[in-house]
Write a structure and sequence with these properties.
The complex is a heterodimer of chains A (282) and B (252).
Chain A: H1 2-39, H2 45-49, H3 63-94, H4 99-113, H5 116-131, H6 136-160, H7 164-172, H8 177-205, H9 209-212, H10 232-240, H11 245-274
Chain B: E1 5-14, E2 17-27, E3 32-36, H1 43-50, E4 60-68, E5 71-72, H2 79-85, E6 86-89, H3 101-110, H4 117-130, H5 134-137, H6 151-164, E7 169-173, H7 181-194, E8 199-203, H8 207-213, E9 216-221, E10 224-230, H9 231-236, H10 241-247
Helix pairs in contact in B: 3-4, 3-6, 4-6, 6-7
């Protein structure tokens, strides 16, 4: 009787776990299916090779916005990832227990919760106002600032997870502390740190608000850092609030492409960084 | 070749905790010296003072002197230099998890900027032979991670890694306590061979192990060195009542 009860409660727990998994995955699948349903029909070669056509002309694509998003994310990553990782190293390895570290940790957490449009304003006053015009650079700065807290805090967590025994092994060999941090601790923690960077990357890739008055958007081709640049989320926003059915369809297609590109970018980074890692490593 | 170590008036603290009190002893060159005593008696802290690992803990403090040959390790050199000359093997095997077997052994040299491939190859092979691991891993040197080996193999890998930087002294902090009997006896055989070239200090909980591998044994209790003598004397005719009580199993 008791055994029956136990196997019943075991089945119940398994069932609940499966239900929760379903609840987590279902919205994601639903969104993706809906995007494919609404957007797939508008995706063709022109979508990836042409900039938008003026109102009234049919056809055209988002090629400039795809490239623009790539440029903005590259600038953002170049700013956000090194600063974030450096901050994480400081928090985990050098500042442990200090006032400064507590202040940085607190600031990073607050920064993480700041609405993204505020980041846009910050980049606006830091870059756009002195430059006196909108630019890809300012958009990249806004995205970069947004990436810093996520990268910083996940890097710290991952570095702290490296066992003390591994650090001691390096120090015990007569390796200087800085070298041990760079070549042993950072390297051991790198899979987790890369995950943190990818999370931050994926999060800012879909941001629209911080780009509205920084990157500004551009209906034509531009990869110049000093000029306004198109971006997928901006383009989707503009098309989605327009009164034209064709533009609505293009907005759906843009959203679908954005999601697929983010997934591909994350998968590519994971593939590249997992090569060279030896089998059997725990 | 190994060098002798002379410790005088060594005191060590963790915060307010006075973990080592007035330790004086001479560890002879090219011999194995065992340190025994109950848990928390200070023997691990003691070996960590011999390669200045103790001070990596921010609340730790040391006074007194440790001389290695002609060198006062607290006066004449920085900790990084000392740790190159005094190798350490820890209680739990701790290979670098992201590195191959080869890179684990070469780590101490590579991370200090040494990059001559041919010489590295030679040193890696020699170190793995000295730690009796070569035959088991020679075909997977660069293919397998150090973490993929068995516990006993990992510990011998850690010994090879310590030997590769060519130290004069090898400190072993309970090197076999996490290992099975077969691996333990391999480590003990190894200690026997290694003392021809290195001065070995081994912390152990296992008194038979101390008796098997070491010529000299020190007994620690509550942060003090109670007795230091030849292993034979300690185990057959100790001068201190507390040593006798410990080795006959009356406490600890």
């Amino acid at each position: 009787m008791k055994a029956r009860l136990r196997s019943l409660s075991d089945m119940l727990a398994t069932g609940l776990a499966m239900l929760s998994t379903f609840l987590v995955v279902a919205p994601l699948v639903a969104i993706f299916v809906y995007l494919v349903y609404k957007g797939a029909s508008s995706i063709n070669l022109a979508f990836f090779t042409q900039p938008p056509k003026p109102v009234g002309e049919s056809g055209g694509g988002m090629a400039n916005a795809i490239v623009g998003s790539g440029v903005l994310l590259a600038v953002g990553s170049l700013i956000g990832i090194p600063i974030g990782i450096a901050g994480g190293i400081f928090l985990a390895e050098y500042g442990r227990g200090t006032r400064l570290a507590q202040a940085i940790r607190f600031t990073a957490d607050v920064l993480n919760g700041v609405p993204s449009i505020v980041m846009g304003i910050a980049a606006y006053s830091l870059v756009v106002v002195p430059q006196k015009h909108f630019s890809a650079l300012s958009g990249g700065v806004a995205l970069g600032i947004m990436m810093i807290p996520t990268v910083c805090r996940t890097s710290e967590e991952m570095l702290l997870m490296v066992p003390k025994a591994v650090r001691e092994a390096a120090l015990g060999l007569g390796v200087p502390n800085w070298r041990s941090v760079v070549s042993i601790t950072l390297r051991t923690a790198s899979p987790g740190i890369i995950t943190g960077c990818m999370l931050a990357f994926a999060r800012v890739a879909g941001e629209t608000a911080p780009l509205i008055f920084t990157a500004f958007g551009n209906v034509g081709w531009s990869v110049n850092l000093n000029e306004p640049i198109a971006a997928l989320p901006l383009q989707i926003y503009v098309y989605a609030i327009s009164p034209y059915d064709e533009w609505h369809r293009l907005a759906w297609a843009g959203a679908l492409v954005l999601i697929v590109l983010i997934v591909l970018a994350v998968a590519l980074v994971r593939y590249v960084t997992s090569r060279g890692v030896l089998k059997g490593a725990s | 070749m190994g060098v002798g170590i002379e410790v005088s008036n060594l005191n060590a603290w963790y915060g307010a905790n006075h973990t080592l009190q007035d330790i004086n002893l001479k560890i002879p060159a090219n011999h194995a010296t065992a340190l025994i005593g109950p848990s928390g008696c200070g023997k691990s802290t003691f070996v960590r003072c011999l390669n200045r690992m103790h001070e990596t803990n921010p609340v730790a403090r040391v006074t007194g002197s440790v001389r290695m040959g002609d060198l006062d390790i607290y006066e004449d050199a920085n900790p990084v230099e000392i740790r190159r000359r005094v190798g350490m093997v820890f209680q739990r095997p701790n290979p670098f998890p992201t590195m191959s077997i080869y890179d684990n052994v070469a780590a101490g040299l590579k991370l200090n900027g040494f990059s001559n491939r041919r010489v590295l190859d030679e040193i890696v092979e020699k170190s793995l032979r000295n730690s009796a691991l070569w035959d088991e891993v020679k075909d997977d040197l660069k293919k397998k991670s150090g973490a993929s080996l068995s516990g006993g193999q990992q510990q011998r890998l850690c010994i090879a890694r310590a030997l590769a930087v060519d130290p004069e002294v090898l400190l072993m902090d309970e090197p076999a306590s996490a290992l099975d009997p077969v691996s333990t006896s391999k480590i003990e055989d190894l200690i026997f061979q290694l003392k021809a070239q290195y001065t070995i200090v081994i912390v152990t909980h296992n008194m038979q192990q101390a008796a098997r591998v070491a010529e000299h044994t020190g007994f620690f209790l509550n942060g003090r060195l109670v007795e230091f003598d030849s292993t034979h004397k300690i185990f057959t005719n100790p001068s201190d009542k507390r040593t006798e009580d410990y080795i006959t199993g009356r406490f600890g």
